[in-house]
Specification:
The protein is of the alpha+beta class. The chain is built from 8 helices and 5 strands; from the N terminus they run αααααββββαβαα. About 20% of the residues are buried.
């Protein structure tokens, strides 16, 4: 869709005119100049400019996001509620991305068996080959009551990324499985899970193949 279909808010229009920029000819570094000018006019104006530029020039969203990431910590407590909310969400993502990079460095790219913990919980996950889908990998989730879930991906790297970014497992906790797997509570949970899986298999066999 043509950028002509969108009309910037008055504040953004004023900034564009002052900088002698045309919407259709904006480059990445131009968006940084526009957003810098908007910040000087207040948080509300910045957020309008941020939204307008993303809407008007979706092809430059990477540049717009880059600028936002550079200044995001200044907006965490902004009086502009929607901006503060977006900043807090982005800070969480950046924090997880930093953790992912740290783990990659810490492990040297050897992710199999590496355990991570959800903060403020007794839940863990680790990466391992997926026995049910040879050639693929999974991250298995467990707590004091045994294993309770898993996610399968094509590579260990994808498992680690999703484990951190989507699963929220952000604290390395080496040896966590060894600590809990010998407890009666964990063993009982594993036995219950195996029984449920066995019953499910029997039910599927009784139903027979679908026609």
């Amino acid at each position: 869709m043509s950028t002509a279909s969108y009309i910037p808010c008055p504040e953004v229009t004023q900034i564009l005119q002052k900088l002698d920029y045309k919407v259709d000819s904006l480059k990445g570094h131009h968006t940084h100049a526009v957003l810098s000018a908007a910040i000087k006019m207040g948080d509300d104006t910045y957020f309008k400019a941020y939204k307008d530029l993303r809407r008007i020039r979706p092809d430059l969203r990477a540049d717009i996001q880059e600028f936002f990431d550079d200044v995001v910590f200044f907006f965490e407590d902004s009086e502009c509620g929607p901006l503060a909310l977006r900043a807090k969400g982005r800070i969480k993502i950046i924090s997880k991305q930093n953790i992912l990079e740290d783990v990659i460095t810490l492990t040297g790219g050897e992710f199999l068996g590496f355990e991570m913990k959800r903060p403020n919980s007794e839940q863990w996950a680790f990466v391992l080959p997926d026995a049910s889908e040879p050639g693929r990998y999974r991250y298995s989730e467990f707590d004091a009551d045994g294993f309770y879930g898993h996610q399968t991906r094509d590579t260990p790297e994808e498992c680690l990324k999703d484990m951190i970014m989507e699963g929220g497992y952000t604290h390395p906790d080496k040896g966590a499985l060894n600590k809990v797997q010998a407890t009666p509570r964990f063993i009982e949970g594993v036995i219950r899970l195996a029984e449920r899986q066995r019953q499910h298999s029997l039910e599927n066999e009784e139903e027979g193949p679908s026609i």
